[in-house]
From TrEMBL:
Keyword Signal: yes
InterPro entries: PPIase_dom_sf, PPIase_PpiC, PrsA_foldase, Trigger_fact/SurA_dom_sf
Organism encoding this protein: Clostridium tarantellae
Enzyme class: isomerase
EC assignment: 5.2.1.8
Keywords attached to this entry: Isomerase, Rotamase, Signal
Reaction equations catalysed: [protein]-peptidylproline (omega=180) = [protein]-peptidylproline (omega=0)
Domain spans labelled PpiC: 188-282
Domain of life: Bacteria
Designated name of the protein: peptidylprolyl isomerase
Coiled coil: none
């Protein structure tokens, strides 16, 4: 990445604070600004320079939008301060979670950690394919720094999992939520859909031929369901209930699904993503409210996410105090 253009901003320092009249004024250098300590976690310092390094790709986009002197633009200045506040909060939170993971002995052994890092790295590389290097460059990563980042994220995940490990949702919680929010579960006509997505029409035809010859759709679905994580096709996905008028789905896909009978498997359906073999079950021909049993898993996920979010927020605030986290947002406007 190209270096972000530097900006000169006024900052006044002195041993004592006087009125401006007759007082010696010293303009803080860019180097001094970048060395300003804006947070501490257990005595470990985070400088403004550390924060700005995290925001290099953000600044590059802002430079393209506002020009090379973007830091002098009033709107850009506001965005810079907000971006710094968000980045600093993330950096402090990460340091606190890593510290807690170490204290609680949640960090895997070096061998296990290296294995997990390499697996995540390879998964990311496979997922991005030929765009991998460009994506790393855009975010300012080298392979080494990306692996360091992934290592920290793995450790953070261990602390997060620990913080929310006791979350439990009862059947009564689910029932109460359902009764209070029935209308939000209202669905248009549609069906539960699974599909196998092939890259080419010939591949899709081969899959359909196997099904027509007696191989079950479910067997092939199981065979292909892990391919997506590995970045290869065919892939198999359970899409859950999909309304026939769903705006976020390819129209050709929906057209191919809406004429299927219960349990029927489609011929290859071409969409902008490739060629689909679709299976439809639980077909609903009109608008309806799903039963409690049909909504149970969805409600459980909603409530789990709500409780996890609240619990994690409170736990992080407690841990920040325990790790003596100090943040000086007032020093970010430089």
């Amino acid at each position: 990445m190209g270096k972000v253009k530097k900006v000169v901003a006024a900052a006044l320092v002195g041993a004592l604070m006087f009125s401006a009249v007759g007082c010696g004024m010293i303009e803080k250098t860019e180097s001094a600004k970048q060395g300003t300590v804006v947070a501490k976690v257990n005595g470990e310092k985070i400088t403004l320079g550390d924060v700005d390094k995290e925001l290099e790709s953000t600044y590059k986009r802002m430079e393209q939008q506002y020009g090379e002197n973007f830091k002098e633009d009033p709107k850009a200045k506001e965005m810079i301060v907000k971006s710094r506040e968000q980045a600093l909060d993330s950096m402090v939170t990460e340091k606190v979670l890593i510290a807690k993971a170490k204290e609680l002995k949640l960090v895997p052994s070096d061998e296990e950690l290296t294995k997990e890092v390499n697996q995540k790295f390879d998964d990311l590389k496979n997922k991005l394919g030929e765009n991998f290097q460009a994506a790393m460059d855009a975010d300012g990563f080298t392979e080494e720094t990306l692996k360091d980042y992934l290592k920290n994220q793995i450790i953070v995940e261990k602390a997060v999992d620990y913080a929310v490990k006791d979350i439990a949702i009862s059947d009564e919680d689910i029932k109460s939520y359902y009764e209070e929010n029935k209308e939000q579960f209202k669905q248009s006509a549609g069906a539960n859909m699974k599909h196998i997505l092939a890259a080419t029409e010939d591949e899709a035809k081969d899959i359909k031929a196997k099904i027509d010859a007696g191989t079950s759709f479910d067997k092939l679905f199981e065979e292909y369901k892990n391919n997506k994580a590995q970045g290869k096709k065919p892939i198999a996905e359970d899409l859950g209930f999909v309304a026939y008028n769903e705006q976020n789905f390819d129209p050709a896909f929906l057209e191919g699904a809406k004429n299927l009978k219960e349990g029927e498997v489609s011929a290859p359906v071409k969409s902008s993503f490739g060629y689909h073999i679709i299976q439809a079950t639980g077909i609903k021909s009109e608008e309806h409210i799903p039963t409690l049993d049909e909504s149970k898993e969805k409600i459980k996920t909603i409530l789990e996410n709500q409780k996890k979010s609240e619990t994690l927020k409170n736990t992080i605030e407690t841990w920040k105090k325990e790790e003596k986290a100090q943040v000086s947002n007032d020093k970010l406007n430089q």
